[in-house]
Amino acid sequence: MRNLKVILTYDGAEFSGWQVQPDAATVQGTLASAVGRITGEKVLPQGSGRTDAGVHALAQVVTFVTESSVPTENFVKALNDILPPSVRVLEVTEAPPEFHARHSARAKTYRYRIYRGAICPPFLARYVWHYPYPLDEQAMAQAAERVVGEHDFTSFAAVDPERGRDQDSALNVRRIFSSAWLRTGEELVYTVRGSGFLHHMVRNLIGTFILVGRGTLQGEDVTRILEARDRSVAGATAPASGLFLVNVEY
What's the rounded mean pLDDT across residues 204-230? Predict the structure, then answer.
């Protein structure tokens, strides 16, 4: 048995997220089908995380176990011959048996792109959130710094309907290593690196930072929202189109 590590990049606009679903196109399902055609095996590749519908990845890490003897370099070519153009395999390598794309991850970096120009080019529309309205970008930058460190991010996590608000908040503690906004031309770009991220966490942070930029909230309110451990006090979930999984560290 071989444990293969795959570096994958994809345009999430065409998929209903990473996780395989019945009667829906997903990245995991599409990759599983391609691997099956090459190896003749039924496998379910494991990703470093489950990106939502419409979320993109520059370097998603995936592992799967196979008995196939196909060389790793041939796997790259064969998979890219089968996969749709919206999904590309960048690299396939042998990994130790104990390595797992999700369980072995130590840090992840996400990036969120907001297009600030009055008219969004059609070739960018599926990769940004078009927000041409006034924002105090300096206030947003200062607010972003407030989430650095170890915090309970319950206020920024999608509510699990099975657990509701009584969910164990200890499970929602994450460490954020860096959190910053950068203006690049017409784009305002948020980059965050952390030990891990909860469902919708980055998009909920963006929605909250937007409220700071609009003046609806103050920077210190971000600390208050963190301490509240209540999803209802944070901002709305930002659109998926602007979010990219950039990097996974092990």
Answer: 97
